[in-house]
Amino acid sequence: MSEKNFGFKVTSRLSENLGRVGVINTPHGEIQTPAFIPVGTKATVKSVVPEAMKQIGAQALLANAYHLYLQPSSDLIDEAGGLGKFMNWPGPTFTDSGGFQVLSLGVGFKKVLAMDPDSVQEDDVMASEKERLALVDDDGVNFKSHLDGNVHRFTPEVSMQVQHQIGADLIFAFDECTTLKNTREYQEQSLVRTLRWAERCVIEHQRLTKVRADKPYQALLGVIQGAQYQDLRREAAKDIANLDFDGFGIGGAIDKNILGQIVRWVNEELPENKPRHLLGIGEPDDLFEGVENGADTFDCVAPSRNARNAAAYSQFGRYNISNNKYQRDFSELDKGCNCYTCANYTKAYLQHLFRAKEMLASTLLTIHNLHFIVSLVDKMRVSIIDGTFFEFKKDFLGRYYAAI
Fold first, then answer.
1. Per-residue pLDDT tens for 202-216?
2. Which domains does the chain have, with CATH numbers?
3. Which is nearest to 57 in space by CA: 311, 384, 368, 388?
4. Which residue of 47, 134, 163, 327 has the fewest CB atoms within a 10 Å radius of its CB?
5. Report for 151-160, 368-377, 395-404: range of highest mean pLDDT
């Protein structure tokens, strides 16, 4: 079997809270936590070369098993030497299981308002204009590719096989991702299904680790669901913690209004000596809530997606750089920012690039936005160590959301 050169150690704690500082050891290097992990869905952070990701301070990147399975194929990435070598990224890598994409892209979820999750709950969450392209059963999911319409089947075993071929350092168990619109009864049924799938993932992961003993060890993280229900979240955390996972992912339908509470419910049940990843979270207030309540790593497409839509992050909030007011503004995107973009380019230039529909616009603004969020979580880590976390949180959020 591959040497299990993976581990996690807590080095500092947030007084009277669950927040902590730690180190995740992987075959491709350390991750100082808490840390934001930029998303490179298809083995690339859109519009940015991997070398630039190192320059902005990214410690690891996360790719998506669903997308890489469909294109270029997980066996091709395996043949290339694994995800990191394939994309020329020397550091640690994550892959999520593909469960969310199988269901969200395949089913076509209705848009859900997180502020009112209990209104009009239902279990058929198909958007009216969408064709149902995914069918879930207790064994797995049949789905049609969003690329060509071909039918595929994902099971816990297939997800493990795909992720082992992709070769990321940290991989996630296959789970059913529900929405806040699903009924309580369906959430309960889904927890049972996800637990059974988690058990099968562990078994297949252990088998593949033996079969592929010449490959670096991959850490398996179990995913905890339960939507906005405290008892379901705690139950799921206890059940998943009893399985042989190397760490945990907090996922599924999360009501942002109580995000901190949900993270706390889960982390109060999880063991202290394993890392916890909060899936799909990237807004500043949510990151503070996650860190304060014991999450160690985070991922989200928001910084890069917002950049491609001309939304720039700054210490005084988010703004649209394509607005006319920036046409002759020759200052940097965010005063005091030391990223490559702010050191070399002005708001006027970025405004011109977006208006001219130049590809460089997305590149430069993505570099800035990711640097902003990665650095923000880095500063949270330092503030826990020096005992100033709550002062830093109050000061930052007071400025960032001042205009709201």
1. 999 999 999 999 999
2. 7-300 (3.20.20.105), 309-400 (no CATH)
3. 368
4. 327
5. 368-377
